[in-house]
Amino acid sequence: MKRAAAIGLLLIASAAAASPPAGPVRSRAMLITGATLIDGTGAAPIEGAFLFVRDGPFTEISTIARKRGMLSLARDVRVIDGTGKWIIPGFVDAHVHIDARSDPARMIRWGVTAARLMAEDVSRARAFALRSLSKRRSPDFFPAAPIFTAPGGWWSSQSRDRHLDRFPATAGAARAAVRKARDLGAAEIKVMNDDMSWCRDPLPRLPKIDDGVFGALVGAARELNLRVSVHAPRRADAARAVAAGATALAHGVIDEPIDDETLARMKKDGVFYIPTLDIFDFLADPQAFVGRALSDSRILASLPRGEPARLRSPSYAAGYRERYPNAAYVASHREMLDENLRRVRDAGIPVALGTDMWAFPGAGVHLELEDFVRAGYRPVDAIRAATLVAARSIGEDSRRGSIEAGKLADFIVLENDPLADIRNTRSIESVYKHGKRAYSRYRPVEEE
Ligand SMILES: [Zn+2]
What we know:
- The protein is α/β, with parallel strands linked by helices and about 450 residues long.
- It has two domains: about 1-90 and about 405-440, Urease, subunit C, domain 1 (Roll); about 90-285 and about 315-395, Metal-dependent hydrolases (TIM Barrel).
- About 40% of the residues lie in helices and about 20% in strands.
- It has 18 helices and 16 strands.
- Strands 1, 2, 3, 4, 5, 14, 15 and 16 form an eight-stranded mixed β-sheet that branches. The protein has a five-stranded parallel β-sheet with strand order 9-10-11-12-13, with helices on one face. A three-stranded parallel β-sheet has the order 6-7-8.
- α9 crosses α10 and α16 packs across α17.
- The relative contact order is 0.15.
- It binds zinc ion (ZN).
- The site of zinc ion has 5 residues, from loops.
């Protein structure tokens, strides 16, 4: 029964090849030949690669020399000449929020095929994430929700969770809220552990989450096998988070060198470090950051109408200076972020690239890649942080994050060599999600 159905599908696929398909587009087999493959594992590039994709995943990855016979496969195979192109895995942004309806489409346009979505409401985030899996023009989203914080603390003014208390006042309430999150389907929670003085002084310092409540949140989550991302840009807060059992630091540490004890614990537990250098660049000087992003004609051209003018307007930068007046501190500690990134990397701790970049969804990944290279990363390692390691940070590395047989065919075709200049990750010709084209520079892509 199952077998007959599969053969029927193949026949339909062959017929569809001859004439334009009526109704929903079927996934056809695809063979890309001759491109240089950077597989996301950090391995050296493979020239003249053959990528074979059928029904979503990569089915074969090889070189011309080994698999010359592939071209004589079934007739329903669409052969794409990739000569002179580079192929890298789709990016996994390990730290995003959704601010606007257009954000997912902007992310996929820049090659982001999966992302960790930080969100306030567990069930809403989960429903949104489930829908994203079947949308071509959206990354697949993996929520970290809810975002717990102190009553009146950072992020407490954002919306509530409809079903649980994300501002628990006692350890008991914290444990109950985490259990409820798990019952609603959460696989990961996020906790804020920050008075925001590093970017908001001299504004009043925000109440920080109580130590007992914090320990209860992280402890309960780990007992229930949930991942825990912690926002803690100060060294002491980050150290407390790691000691309590956090599985990821959602931002870099800005104030001082991460201590050896914390580094050792991160290494032992495999705690992910997500430096989000771009947001520190942004807060240090919003105007300069916007200028840097818009100086790339590809980023400029990708923005919605009116957006460049809005970002460049004096009131835009002034608004950030008002809400985050401690820009001088961020600017004077920017080098510490690079230093901590190198310390973490050299200690053998997994570093995942994430952006948290509200102003440039998707494009932020490319700015962050450039930041990684400026901090001392080789381009191939920066790409690995943005693909395989980021996928591992959301528990998805068995299905995505690298170009390997059996993994989902999420990949980006580039026109220029990203290892020669990391900014060439912006030379995107096309983006594929689950083996289907989700963005093309040369032709419109329709939503299924
Ligand atoms: Zn965030």
